[in-house]
Design goal:
CATH topology: Metallo-beta-lactamase, Chain A
Shape: elongated
CATH superfamily: Ribonuclease Z/Hydroxyacylglutathione hydrolase-like
Number of helices: 7
Bound molecules: zinc ion
Low-confidence stretches: 1-10, 13-23
Helix content: 25-40%
CATH class: Alpha Beta
Structural class: alpha/beta
Order of helices and strands: HEEEEHEHEEEEEEHEHHH
Strand order of the largest sheet: 1-2-3-4-5-6-7
Number of domains: 1
Number of strands: 12
Largest sheet: 7 strands, mixed
Radius of gyration: 19 Å
């Protein structure tokens, strides 16, 4: 599973603005049809949803200018219609660049996105957000209903879960990988209680495809397996936190740091990045006693 951490690292690297392909054959682009007028387009370590409506196309997470130009080319093979809506799954800078490649598009994001507009030293965020929502926003793209929902923070704060209810398709970002833990270093802005809550919610839905921004595998079983992982992690950490919170709260921080070394989850030993489990234990422990 070395590959997965490399993929994520490459995603972060894209953030610093490498605009050259660097590959002799050009980057590999994979487009899969998930339903009528609905596609998953994978390129440069990100997968975007594309929904073709009557007057334009909705896409998610352009990522960066170079990838956005690849998306534009790929979409032009599917339809003559312009991209008119870009939905941001969250505010992390490696997901949000390149919107200028689609001048006719409105950028749509959760309202928390606005908080980061003045906290962006590298200037990676789009210049403006054209539409925000608080809890839920429904968009019509031809015959396809696209629902955006905010369940709270998870990986990032302006988290928008994209849902096509009729087709049983959801899009999430950075809450799980394919039978692997996200590398510990990439959890810097992850709220594990939030990711657990959202994945459990989505695991209860009747899904045909779960698009995960850094994977080209849309099997909902991967989402469900990760929801189970978060539950097992929580169950390994919470009872001790609950006991100490009652008996001696002064011991909580020390105990989290001890448990970092003690907790194992043998069922996930074969998962990629399992060696980073201590980072998860620590982050879950602090999420429970401190928040965030
Ligand atoms: Zn992220």
């Amino acid at each position: 599973m070395e590959k997965l951490s490399t993929l994520l690292a490459a995603g972060i690297l894209a953030l610093v603005g490498s605009t050259t392909p660097g590959l002799a054959d050009g980057p590999k682009i994979e487009t899969r049809k998930l339903g009528e007028n609905i596609y998953a387009i994978s390129a440069l370590h990100y997968t975007s949803l594309a929904v073709i409506g009557d007057k334009g196309v909705l896409i998610t997470d352009t990522a960066n200018p170079y990838r956005a130009s690849l998306l534009a080319k790929e979409i032009s093979k599917l339809t003559d219609l312009p991209v008119t809506k870009i939905v941001m799954t969250h505010e992390h800078y490696d997901h949000v660049g390149g919107t200028e490649v689609f001048p006719k598009a409105d950028v749509i994001a959760h309202e928390n996105f606005e908080m980061f507009m003045d906290q962006d030293p590298l200037g990676l965020l789009p210049d403006q957000i054209d539409m925000t929502f608080e809890e839920k926003l429904t968009l019509k793209m031809g015959a396809t209903k696209v629902e955006l929902s905010h369940f709270g923070p998870a990986d990032g704060t302006a988290v928008a879960v994209v849902n096509l209810p009729k087709e049983g398709i959801v899009v999430t970002s950075d809450m799980y990988l394919e039978n692997a833990l996200t590398p510990g270093w990439a959890l810097t802005d992850s709220n594990l209680l939030g990711s657990r809550q959202i994945l459990n919610e989505l695991a209860s839905w009747d899904l045909n495809h779960a698009i995960n921004a850094h994977s080209n595998n849309t099997d909902p079983a991967l989402l469900k397996a990760s929801a189970q992982f978060y539950n097992d992690l929580y169950d390994a950490v919470f009872p001790e936190m609950q006991r100490l919170a009652k008996e001696d709260p002064r011991q909580l921080v020390k105990r989290v740091l001890q448990m970092r070394q003690e907790v194992s989850l043998p069922a996930y030993e074969q998962w990629g990045n399992y060696k980073d489990l201590p980072d998860y234990v620590q982050k879950m422990g602090f999420a429970i006693i401190h928040g965030g």
